Amino acid sequence: MGGTLALWASLGADVRVLSMTAGEAGGDPTVRRAEFAASCAALGVTGDVLDLPDGSLASVRGGPALVRDVVGAFAPSVVLTLGPDGGYAHLDHQAVTRWVDRCGAPILHAVFPPGLLHPVWRGLRRAKFPGVAKGLSREQFGSADADVVVDIASVHERKRAAIAAHASQLRGRGPEDFLLPGLLDSLGSTERWAEPR
Fold first, then answer.
1. 187 near 87, Cβ under 8 Å?
2. Per-domain boundaries in the chain
3. pLDDT digits (tens, 9 = 90+) for 1-22
4. Facing residues of 111 across strands?
5. Are 177 and 120 in contact (CB under 8 A)?
6. Model pLDDT for residues 131-146, shown as the tens digit of each residue
7. For every residue of the chain, which 3-state class applies, written as one string?
């Protein structure tokens, strides 16, 4: 969603990004916080990090109320989040999407082309990563339906820079290889969004 965030910020919108965790399950939280800040700077947005437990958001009590309180404090025109599939069936992503869906604000869910992120999920399952759902098929990832399509061609390089800021997660590779080689390029120059169904 970095392209949409960068575009709206470039048009003068007050864009804020909230990360629920410091990412401690995937590396040094101090490094992860610095990378998040650099990524937000590349997009031209404001970012904040909460200290909820990375890797176990589904068990956090009061998650929906917390999101409702944060959203209520800022009264956004729209809240962007992943779809119910959590992008690639990441359990933390799915939990946060459920919380956001109950926040009372207008919401748009990220829509990825059908099956696009299934190889990411498959790779994580092969690596025995415990943070993704089990037993899913390619058809359960993504959708052809989108209510809003945002042209991000003018900010595509800012999106690449934001991904590059997460160097510890890229493990020495470039943004083009984020999650899978060619994935960023296969998303093209648009980002797609859907209203909750």
1. no
2. 2-194
3. 999 999 999 999 999 999 999 9
4. 192
5. no
6. 999 999 999 999 999 9
7. CHHHHHHHHHCCCCCEEEECCCCHHHCCHHHHHHHHHHHHHHHCCEEEECCCCCCCHHHCCCHHHHHHHHHHHHCCCCEEECCCCHHHHEHHHHHHHHHHHCCCCCEEEEECCCCCCHHHHHHHHHCCCCCECCCCCHHHCCCCCCCEEEECHHHHHHHHHHHHCCHHHHCCCCHHHCCCCCHHHHCCCEEEEECCC
Q: Is the overall model pTM greater than 0.85, yes or no?
A: yes
Domain 2-194, second-level architecture: 3-Layer(aba) Sandwich (3.40)
Retrieve residue 16's tokens.
């804020």
As a whole number of angstroms, the distance between CA 128 and CA 124 comes to: 6
